[in-house]
Amino acid sequence: MKIIRIYRFLFILLLLTGCTALKYIPKEESLYTGAKVEVISLKKITGQHLVVSEIKDLIRPKPNSKIGISRPYLWVYFVMGTKETGLFHWIKTKTGEPPVYKSMTDPMLVSKAIDAKLFNMGFFNSYSQLEIIESKNGKTTGISYKIFLYEPYTFDEIIFPKDSDALSKNISASQKKSLLQKGARYDLELLLLERMRIDDRLKRHGFYYFNPQHILFKMDTALGNGKLRLYITLKPEIPDKSKLVYRIADVNVFQDYKPGKDSSPSHTEIIDSVYYNNKTDYIKPEPILRSIFLKNNQIYSRQKYTLTLNRLNGLGVFKFVNIRIADKDTSLPGWLSATIFLTPLPQKSVSIEMQGVSKSNNFIGPALTFSLRNRNAFKGAELLIYNLRSSFETQLSGIYKGQYTYEIDPRVELYIPRFMVPFKLKENSNFVPRTKFILDYSFLSRVGYFDLNSFKFTYGYKWKQTPTIDHDLSLVSINYYNIYNKSQLFEDLINSNSLLKRRFEEQFIAGIGYSFIYNEQLKRKKMNQVYFNGNAELAGNTLSLISGAKSSSDNPSKIFGIPFAQFAKLDIDVRDYIHVSEKSMVASRFIAGWGLPYGNSSTMPFVKQFFSGGAYSLRGFPAYSVGPGSYAPPDSLKNVLFLQQGGEIKLEANLEYRFPIAGIFRGAFFADAGNVWVNKKQTELPGAEFNGTRFIKEIAVSYGAGLRVDLNFFVLRLDLGIPARKPWLPDGQRWVFDQFKFSEIIFNIAFGYPF
């Protein structure tokens, strides 16, 4: 075995060294191998690593990619030949990487850019030198940039305008919020940001025609010792209009404007001092007027302009929103007219989605989803969504052959674009808040076992605080489900197992819930993107007060003759996406959840439990098959179609490396670990309870690889998962790397990425 490993290592080494591609470099050319940056300074400069990072970003071009000492992508480019069509050409363009030669570089130009960058960062006396480094055989060329770095200039004093005119006073009043601080290093980019900050403040205070170019920075470097005095002044030739504070004279709205058509006023009425032009009665005035923050006789504010634009767009009923600001035709200067043109979207849209479902428990079947969206259901910008989903699943072969399930799920959602509350609420967010009403019904038939009805009603609010922060509050969440048409087989099965019997009892769930989402994936340029989703739910307390009776799990209180659940539930989902390159990343996820039944309940309701295993969890195990703890179901239950092993505590971690293969094809290597547990020891579930000293030994582990077809709007995923650690085996025998069987590979076919 050792000899085989040695030969394998030598083969890989030979392959890597053979892929350097240097033998394909033309004689008249030299392969560019990149540049290194060396800093030479008399002493350590504060923030030196940031300076080096900024300089490295300037260096162009980038050399060919390397893995160790090899350049596999360059090698592929050469060995695929010169044909301009066919398979080899496709591989060459999709996987290969064209060579970067010395002749493509311009080190003198880069050196000048480095010097300019150093000056802009406050290193006025620093400079760069370059050196060309060629290999002995002339096949490769590198460049070395030496940076002679001296102490940067820092602000000793920052002086704002002292004049008494309104414009100068407004600028001076913002000094406390200035981005420029005494002792900070001079930075041209920071000066430009400061200029934009001042301009933004002035636009908020009515200086509509002010231009940031009117601000002038003057520096006095005669202080010596790397100190400078900065004067923030105004250019002397500023137009008079830029010095005036402007007010809104009138606001005009065209709520059914069509580009290119006559927009002359017709059917005009004055509502809340707004000239409202309405031809088609497409939408009521209220949601539009509620979204307009530019008011007559008020000082113009760019903040209110942007707020108005965002809120009107956020209503979701307009294709285009255009706000035109112009001078009011009056003899008095300083007055503006605001005209808002709104172009409606088509009111209704229909979508149909067909899926072929294949689960890790080998059940397959079709699924169809029909959706109708009405963007302006009651002429108040309400969003009304009708969804109907149906699915059918069966096994073509296996122990469940001939058994099948089918499901029908109608769902109605209504979103009203405001907070519906009994008191007046000031809304000044850039995003439209929504009141939600959701009615959900589900019918599930597991043929040969039972039928299930489930009703759910939700009332609450959804709102966005910032582009990265979302809130979802469900003030009322009611869920009722019952099982009927029970077969004798099903009756015998649950009567023989008290745990299963409790799981399928008729139950009523009513409570409140809150979700918080922080998502940095919208920040496309951020190399390390974080996602956080936290959820809290509390159920049964209000019903317990209404019932008035002292309840217990042995003698549960009822509402409308139906037992209700009491529990508290918390869970978090934390993800981190680290972009290794433009198209590859390391994605990780951590999930933790805890549910605590009390009062009326001895266990968490089945629909509120945590599960582990499957295409979006531990991919080396069938769906919902892991846990709880080290528990393994008896042989009498292993072949039960509807058995899903849930828990009240969950810990799970996932790690995945995603990389491009060619074109729309992506690859992944992954590892998953986790399990679920129950809070208390249960005789029906030996080894299922959470134990602080034992739970690490009960973590299930799987690993594998995946292939994805990524069309941006649609991702088809195939993951092959292999179990590595089985917590239900005896302690000391749970790692099963050396017991690999092809029959244990789990094929997960799913839509979208796992996280």
Strand order of the largest sheet: 12-13-14-15-16-17-18-19-20-23-24-25-26-27-28-29
Query: Counting H and I runs of at least 4 residues, what is the number of helices?
Result: 13
Shape: globular
Q: How many strands?
A: 29
Could you describe the largest sheet, including whether it forms a barrel?
16 strands, antiparallel
**Which residue ranges are poorly predicted, with pLDDT under 50 across at least 5 consecutive positions?**
3-15
Which structural category do the helix and sheet elements fall into? alpha+beta
Provide keyphrases for this structure:
755 residues, 38% strand, globular
What can you see in these coordinates?
By secondary structure, the chain is of the alpha+beta class. The chain contains 13 helices and 29 strands. α2 runs antiparallel to α5 (107-120). The radius of gyration is 34 Å and the shape is globular.
Itemize the secondary structure elements and their pairings:
Elements: H1 2-18, E1 31-40, H2 48-58, H3 72-79, H4 86-94, H5 107-120, E2 127-134, E3 140-148, E4 154-159, H6 166-172, H7 188-204, E5 215-220, E6 227-234, E7 247-254, E8 268-271, E9 274-277, H8 285-289, H9 302-314, E10 318-327, E11 335-344, E12 348-358, E13 364-374, E14 383-394, E15 404-416, E16 434-446, E17 450-466, E18 469-484, H10 488-495, H11 498-503, E19 507-519, E20 528-539, H12 541-547, E21 558-559, E22 562-563, E23 567-579, E24 585-597, H13 635-638, E25 649-662, E26 665-677, E27 700-710, E28 715-725, E29 746-751
Parallel strand pairs: 1-3, 4-6, 7-9, 7-11
Antiparallel strand pairs: 2-3, 5-6, 8-9, 10-11, 12-13, 13-14, 14-15, 15-16, 16-17, 17-18, 18-19, 19-20, 20-23, 21-22, 23-24, 24-25, 25-26, 26-27, 27-28, 28-29
Helix pairs in contact: 2-5
